Amino acid sequence: MTRKEIEAIVAQMTVEEKASLCSGGDFWHTKAVERLGVPAMMVSDGPHGLRKQKDEGDHLGVNDSIVAVCYPAGCASASSFDRNLLNEMGQAIGEACQAEGVGVILGPAVNIKRSPLCGRNFEYYSEDPYVAGEIAASYIKGVQSKNVGTSIKHFMANSQETRRMSSDSRVDERTMREIYMPAFETAVKESKPWTVMCSYNRINGTYAAENKTLLTDVLRDEWGFDGFVVSDWGAVNDRVAGVKAGLDLEMPPSCGVNDKLIEKAVKDGSLDESILDQTVIRILEIVYKYMDNRDKEAVFDRQAQHEFSRKVAEESLVLLKNEGILPLKKEQKIAFIGQYAEKPRYQGGGSSHINSFKVTGALEMVRDMPNVIYARGYDDAEDRTDEKLVAEAVEAAKAAEVAVIFAGLPDAFESEGYDRTHMQMPESQNYLIEEIAKVQPNVVVVLHNGSPVEMPWLPKVKGVLEAYLGGEAVGEAEYRILFGEVNPSGKLAETFPLHLEDNPSYLYYIGEEDVVEYREGVFVGYRYYDKKKMNVLFPFGYGLSYTTFDYSNITLDKESIKDTETLTVSVDITNTGKVAGKEIVQLYVSDKESTPIRPVKELKGFEKIELAPGETKTVTFRLNDRAFAYYNTQIQDFHIETGDFKISVGSSSRDIRLEAEVYVESTRSIPKKYHLNTTFGDISKDPEAEKFLAPLYAACTMIDACDTNSAEGLGTSSKAMQDAMMQYMPLRALVSFQDGTIDFTRLQEVLDQLNQ
Ligand code: BGC
Question: Looking at the domain assignment, is residue 674 inside a domain?
Fold first, then answer.
């Protein structure tokens, strides 16, 4: 159906019909208009599988949904750093949607991991906006290639669950642009999601659902979004303000209450009917985009998708520690310990909860291996040590050559709807690990958690495999990695701090009452830990392999570029070990000297490559202006300060192997805005300012006093003090320290010349 045809349908609608289309027909459908043959379209959660509900709708994952395949959650799949894989995963989910008649899947969820405490971190991708944006764009392209839409969420600055429906995220403009917006921006620009879901919270005082700056000025006018915006379930505050701001579809429907308000507003003239028309057209364009391209032949092959979900997990699990203990040998006497070997924790709680097709634990994979014994060790229903279970586990560990403990966070420890209050694992599990380590020197811990945990036992174990919430086939992936059938290749898309208190948002995280100040600004995750030169448990971008990689030959195609040009960086990576493996090569950019306070370095490129033993491949990165820019609030745009930039290529944020430098010249000059309170120091940084300042210096009595050549000259330290006073003196203060030749008219003349 063309836009013209849709417009013609809308032209036949009454105001009442149009207003009614601004909310769903039920919990999961848009409305139909039978009189005009307008169909309804189904939407469903997401993101890491299809949660299509059969009967009673709820947004909390409570009521049953159809059987579907549960893929690794965002925390895990992002660790694959694999754009193609996420695209394929999107395709698989898109296919499932087509087969089940679902027009839009509610995901991906790209909110930034501001704190390890966020209850929903398991669903989100990263602390880094570049990773989140790249991964999201790939997933969206995959889903939408099957003519099914996505709903990138939750727009925006929604990084906590506490008071999620009313909190006010106070974020400064630069932080918003550099940290919280780019994942959405990249996805919208690169992959054109059909819909965007606005978040529950307020942003700098205005609810996301009625935030015109975000929903229209930024999303549509700047980034070119052309789909519809849907409210998060129950996020509408003032419906009419929402329509005006660019919120198209309200979900779930408010029993017609809000539709009536829209109708009334049009009738009393407070809402222009053309705005309502536009809203309805946007919704119908997407409805028909799906309906017109329905794939009636599509099949949801759950077994094939289950196998693919194993592959996604295999690419996503992160090997955090390996002191020569992994891979295990099949003939070793091994004790599998911990309930999660049998019943892994593989997905999170809430709206993303999938009714899984089948779940495989690692234990099932070793059922034909008599040399592997099992002890449950704990029961995750409550955090209570069961001495009997511990004793059995200790016995099993003693009887084996290696103990593999399957541990992690129980469901109750992290979920949509609330945040964690600490970063610890259950005490009973920490205790179990310590007890096993007392009797068995060869211990591997396999972790199941959606967000970082503290690991007090880390020095006492030889191996740690981070399985995150690895989807329904996680046990198969664990088995294959533990026994070396698959070489681990995931890397952390977030930092594991040593302690919760180290996290930059620690002091202010959930805020006071409804106000949440994002005071750490752009220093989120590694941007903070690097700047503070802090030790961390495991750094951003870190993950081990069973092989080793050598980095060489960093080459830049130019030594100097203009900000309108692209820089091409290439490096050679060689597999120097004995087995094939995959490496995630990371590129970071640092501004060597900058006026704004900037992170030490920022990720601006990554590639995952596969190498046979001895093989070398060249990895190429292309960097455009955004790779070097910061957000300048004066011009309200990204800007590059002319100067030298460092390009660092490495295996993690704390394992940089190669460095090079490039000079980047800005072609954009920032309008000068000197005023009476600008300091002499700031003005004198301007190379053109000297000639205008010279007469002022001549009139300044403070400078005379600083003249160390005179007989009565000041000593060196006093000279330094006087220099500093001059540097930090605002222009207007010159009238107090002068020879009588300067008045405000004179200062204004100088300012006018400087600002030209
Ligand atoms: C969640 C969304 C979800 C929606 C529908 C909300 O509570 O925040 O992520 O898509 O419910 O279930």
Answer: no
